[in-house]
TrEMBL record:
This protein's name: LOB domain-containing protein
Species of provenance: Trapa incisa
TM stretches of this protein: none
Pfam families: LOB (PF03195)
Residues in coiled coil: none
InterPro entries: LOB
Family statement drawn from the similarity comment of this UniProt entry: Belongs to the LOB domain-containing protein family.
Residue intervals of the LOB domain: 16-117
């Protein structure tokens, strides 16, 4: 590379070779497929995808894609490569799975909180209603509960939080 630069042999003219060509110790051609996505000032980016996917696979994949989608593909590959290095077994699937578990746990918390609200409303309404109309109030509240798709309304007498 030094020889090329000092001899003025690089066709690209100004600027250093891209991070990919530098790592691969090859000449960076004017139409280098890596150059727009792997600038010389961020060598770690290409090193990571090279380590996980291999330079020739990255090259092949980029060549097969329309140019306007290559930027997104590179972002995706860098993300996946980093995830794969952190978690060699599951890669980014591990991250997705963990986020899905969090979503499930949070949905349960929301459902419990909604049930708690309905429970408290029911108790409040029943306490305020005259004893003769309590059955009517309770059945009308049950309809509301069904409409709000609350699945925990059966257990009105038990505290919902333990
Ligand atoms: Zn290059």
């Amino acid at each position: 590379m030094k020889e090329e630069e000092s001899g003025g042999g690089r066709k690209q003219g100004a600027g250093p070779p891209c991070a990919a060509c530098k790592l691969l110790r090859r000449r960076c051609p004017r139409d280098c497929v890596f150059a727009p996505h792997f600038p010389a000032n961020d060598p770690q980016k290409f090193a990571t995808v090279h380590r996980v996917f291999g330079a020739s696979n990255v090259n092949k994949l980029l060549q097969e894609l329309p140019e306007h989608t290559r930027g997104d593909a590179v972002i995706s590959m860098v993300y996946e490569a980093n995830a794969r290095l952190r978690d060699p077994v599951y890669g980014c699937v591990g991250v997705i799975s963990s986020l899905q578990q969090q979503v499930g746990a949070l949905q349960n918390q929301v459902a419990l909180a909604q049930a708690e609200v309905v429970h408290m409303r029911l108790r409040q309404t029943l306490a305020a209603a005259p004893s003769s109309s309590r059955g009517l109030v309770a059945s009308s509240l049950s309809r509301d509960i069904n409409h709000s798709q609350c699945y925990y309304y059966m257990d009105m007498e038990e505290p919902l939080w333990s």
